[in-house]
Amino acid sequence: MKELFNISFKEAQHLRKEFLSEHSNVDHATIQTNNSVLVSAPHAVSQCRLGKPKVAEIGTVSTALLFAKATNSNLIIKTQNNDDDANYDEDCDYRKTIETMIKTQNIKYLIVFHGLAKFRPCDINLGCNFSQNTKPNQKLFLSLKSALETAGFTVFVDEPFCASPKTISGHFAKNFNIWAVQIEIKQELS
Questions:
Q1: CB-based burial label for 122 (10 Å; 0-12, 13-18, 19+)
Q2: How far is C-alpha 140 from the geometric centre of its chain's CA atoms?
Q3: Which of 26, 166, 182, 187 would disulfide-bridge 127, Cβ 3.0–4.6 Å?
């Protein structure tokens, strides 16, 4: 598994471009496994929230692909801008697919990757809606936070983003009683 994460920035960019190009004709792409974990990257491409365009969170595609491959997890990645925001809009194809996958793949854990602007004071923000989204296994959440801090990252919880019920992780944690976390990773770690 170490070799999987030992790739250059150029290789990660190639992985991202190749995946998005392969799936550019669909709203989103999925990979299904027998694992109970679903990895999501809803802002992999530019999106539109309330009529305003937002840029893609570039590192989320390669992060989600590598993490899902390393853990043999299910995967969903937004691959086309359809003037929507899958992490904000309640009624969109991306969310409908997540709901289907939760039901058919027996998903119990949802990890949603996002990019965090480089001006933020932390390296990683873990959004759990003040523990509401991680109720099914709070010990797992604390282990994740501890592992990231041990690896040298500055980790904030619910600051600046808490993964409210409006987000993918908040919505599915609340409505399907699954463990969900929104992981915001600084786009440029120093």
A1: middle
A2: 17
A3: 182
